[in-house]
């Protein structure tokens, strides 16, 4: 299977560098010079993953991510010169799956793209119980479509968010550590620095499924241990 990668980047030198490495790894490459062009291509072309810069003309990366997340679980890798933790948190909070800082190692970019594709398109191979329907209150997981619904409407979750939420829903009342939830996303090598990333994921999930995210009904924090789902 050939995966289609869309690069949204206004620096042509970076585009050509990424294209070289992507094509050498047998990916099909599409390009857009800004967020608006990227959104138009997403309507017209098959795209399996988006690489997006933050600082672009017409529509920046943050706006692009926000627009995509309204309707799609498309894996998104941010590649930006904005290196402050604040910038990274904004990108992840809006729905990016991964955030890398320029200058970058092209081989590391390729490795992260492959990891995101594995996590996003081999969901059924993870430790999550992917065939069972879960229904709690106004929330429901549909395993055939691999979507979570609230009051019958699909919630726009990223691939990571979906895996974390379904992992929690699979065992209501059970406390999962941050490490266990991290592993549920298909990643390996958890370390303490990943705590902040998991907290961002949980915060984003709550914002999408809870009526009052500051007073969550479903996802409870168990201080010093992790999180549990209340059915």
Automatic annotation (TrEMBL):
4-aspartylphosphate sites (modified residues): 53
Domain OmpR/PhoB-type positions: 131-231
Database matches in Pfam families: Response_reg, Trans_reg_C
Domain of life: Bacteria
Keyword check for Transcription: yes
Recorded GO MF terms: phosphorelay response regulator activity; transcription cis-regulatory region binding
Keywords: DNA-binding, Phosphoprotein, Transcription, Transcription regulation, Two-component regulatory system
Response regulatory domain sequence ranges: 4-117
CDD domains: REC_OmpR, trans_reg_C
DNA-binding feature ranges: 131-231
Keyword flag Transferase: no
GO annotation, biological process: regulation of DNA-templated transcription
Leader sequence segment: none
PANTHER family listed in its UniProt record: PHOSPHATE REGULON TRANSCRIPTIONAL REGULATORY PROTEIN PHOB, REGULATOR OF RPOS
Function text: May play the central regulatory role in sporulation. It may be an element of the effector pathway responsible for the activation of sporulation genes in response to nutritional stress. Spo0A may act in concert with spo0H (a sigma factor) to control the expression of some genes that are critical to the sporulation process.
Protein name: Stage 0 sporulation protein A homolog
Native source organism of the sequence: Candidatus Fimiplasma intestinipullorum
């Amino acid at each position: 299977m050939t995966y289609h990668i869309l690069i949204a980047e206004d620096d042509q030198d970076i585009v050509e560098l990424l294209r070289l490495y992507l094509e050498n790894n047998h990916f099909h490459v599409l390009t857009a010079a800004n967020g608006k062009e990227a959104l138009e291509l997403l309507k017209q072309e098959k795209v399996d993953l988006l690489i997006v810069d933050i600082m672009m003309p017409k529509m920046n990366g943050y706006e692009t991510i926000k627009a995509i997340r309204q309707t799609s679980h498309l894996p998104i890798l941010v590649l930006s010169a904005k290196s402050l933790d604040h910038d990274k948190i904004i990108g992840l909070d809006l729905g990016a799956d991964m955030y890398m800082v320029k200058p970058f190692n092209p081989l590391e970019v390729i490795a992260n793209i492959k990891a995101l594709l594995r996590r996003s398109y081999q969901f059924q191979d993870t430790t999550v119980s992917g065939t069972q329907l879960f229904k709690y209150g106004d929330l429901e997981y549909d395993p055939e479509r691999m979507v979570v619904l609230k009051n019958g409407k699909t919630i726009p979750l990223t691939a990571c968010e979906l895996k974390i939420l379904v992992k929690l829903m699979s065992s209501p009342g059970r406390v999962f550590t941050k490490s266990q939830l991290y592993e549920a996303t298909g990643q390996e090598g958890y370390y303490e620095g990943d705590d902040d990333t998991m907290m961002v994921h949980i915060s984003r999930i709550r914002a999408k499924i809870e009526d009052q995210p500051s007073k969550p009904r479903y996802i409870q924090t168990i201080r010093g241990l992790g999180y549990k789902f209340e059915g």
